[in-house]
Amino acid sequence: MESHQKIITYTDGGSRGNPGEAAIGVFIADEKGHLIKEYGERLGIKTNNEAEYMAVISALKKIKALYGKEKTKKMEVEMRMDSELVMKQLTGVYKIETEHIVPLFVAVWNLKLDFAKVSFSHVPREKNKDADRLVNEALDNEPRRLF
Length: 147
Known about the structure:
- One of its GO terms (molecular function) is RNA-DNA hybrid ribonuclease activity.
- Residues 3-147 form the RNase H type-1 domain.
- 37% of the residues lie in helices and 33% in strands.
- By secondary structure, the chain is α/β, with parallel strands linked by helices.
- The protein has a 5-stranded mixed beta sheet.
- 36% of the residues are buried.
């Protein structure tokens, strides 16, 4: 049995207008790049930075739901994103100066406790195409309404 598993996750959040209609995209892969899960989701009206944070939160929650708390305690997750601002805030390089972002930062910080290691890295937009595609697909599709 593997004692240490690594997951590579690409996240993106986008807002058409800022704030505006927003969505997230999450692409979860194993260490070799094989897809485990991908999804996009509309968020309603949010800022771009809120959407970026919500993508990270959603990804960590999804990984925990897929594997369970016992397995995630032994798991390393590398979060790759094209938002340099959010990455630098999550790694402590930049301070958070926008008050409404603080609860999202705290949510990420608390979720990190469920994993052996969570790291955050910036990737150029062209290396984050899958997550970006999922954001745009979510924004382009009309939201479903339940009657």
